[in-house]
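This section describes the prediction task in plain terms. A model, or a person checking by hand, is given the sequence of a single protein chain and must write out its three-dimensional structure as a string of tokens. No templates, partner chains or ligands are provided. The sample shown here is typical of the held-out split.
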Amino acid sequence: MPKKDQQMREYIATEAARFMVEHGIKNYYQAKRKAAAFLGAADTRNLPTNQEIEQAVGAYLRLFKSKSQPATVEKLRQTALEAMDFFSRFNPRLVGSVLSGLASEYSDINLHLFADTGEEVAIFLTEAGIPFQLRSRQLSLSPKLFQNFPVYRFIAGEVAVELTVFPPAATRHAPLSPIDGKPMRRAGRKKVQSLLETKAQTAD
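The expected answer:
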């Protein structure tokens, strides 16, 4: 790749990271297209990969949010832990930026739940008096095989929580990440608790 094209690719990744961190854009494709347009390269074919943008997000957070971001992640993980306790009957797993540590103030908490049907989660939320929105997310449990899974979104305090519901058989088979194509990293309650305790010990 010509040096000029590689530089533009890096510029777009950095700008996309800024849009995601500072403006709460969560969709990688939307962020990279917006960044390309902002840089006057809307027609470029040298768009960065999702993985390159994720790396740029990490670099941006370390450079511009090093003082505030660790506390943001800790608060989100604590809220995630409380949500996992609340949904314990569905064997919850934490995924996404709150788990990886690349979360910002605009990040959602993403949990994977496991139930025979999505309606079980809907009934649970309804009986608890929690308003929610029902969406759908396309994910792949194996290469080139995509499925739609129900997603229940609600607000806990000031934080959005998204619950993606999988069949019980998927407990041991994480869907493939849209970032790097590998099985998503997931964490149960003990792991999330351990992350919080490690942070507390480091602070001491």
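For orientation: The mean pLDDT is 93.
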